[in-house]
Structure formats: structure tokens, C-alpha cells
Amino acid sequence: MGEGHVVALIPARGGSKGLARKNVRPLAGKPLIAHTIQAACRAGRVERVVVSTDDQEIAEVARESGAEVPFLRPTAYLTPSGATPSFGSSRRRAIPSRSWSTFRQRMSSDTGG
Predict the structure, then answer these.
(1) Tens digits of per-residue pLDDT, 71-93?
(2) CA distance 113 to 59
(3) Helix (H) or strand (E) holding 32
(4) Could you tell me if 11 and 52 are in contact, meaning their C-beta atoms sit under 8 angstroms apart?
(5) Overall domain count for the chain
(6) How far apart are CA 32 and CA 26, in angstroms?
(7) Backbone angles phi, psi at 84, to 5 degrees
(8) Do 9 and 50 touch, CB atoms closer than 8 A?
(9) DSSP state of 54
């Protein structure tokens, strides 16, 4: 990987106001989140795919699809709007600092920040 390690972080809440259980609902023969995970796994520069979720079923599907799920996200980090303001801080504890720093640097350069 030459330039460093890229970690794809995929947040996936169990609850949804719009379409209940959407992350585990089938789309073209597999759960919706499986498509996202598999696309991240195929990305040439992504070394690790990590899913952050509060839901055991999503965690199981994510693992079966090739992602890491280091732990279930605490419900204290959930909001009704789906926003996860503490997402970064909870992931930072689960991902080695070298990987996290590279992810932040890449996100900053990709978004112009």
C-alpha cells in the first residue's frame, strides 16, 4: 500500500424511520449493507473495512460479508436523526492510531479540508 493504510468506516444503525431494517433487507439477492461492504472490499486502496453498528443482526451480516465489527456501538451514541456525533471517538478506540490518522488525513484531502 505504499502511502499508508486506508480504513473504510461504514456506520449502520439498526433503527430507521424511513425503511425499517433497511441495512439487512435484501436487494438483488443479498442484504443492502453487503453491497456497500463488498464494494469497499474491492476498492484497491482500502485495507480494512470496519462497520459501526448498534445492531447484532447487522453485525452478523457485516462479518459474513467480509467486514470487521470490533464491537456494538453503545446506544448512548445514537440519535433519532441518525446522526452519530461520537462515531469517530468510538471508532478511534477500536482502530489502531496509525490507521485512524491515515483515514483522517485522506478524508481531509478528499474533501478539501
Answers:
(1) 998 876 666 655 555 555 555 55
(2) 31
(3) helix 32-42
(4) yes
(5) 1
(6) 6
(7) -125, 75
(8) yes
(9) S
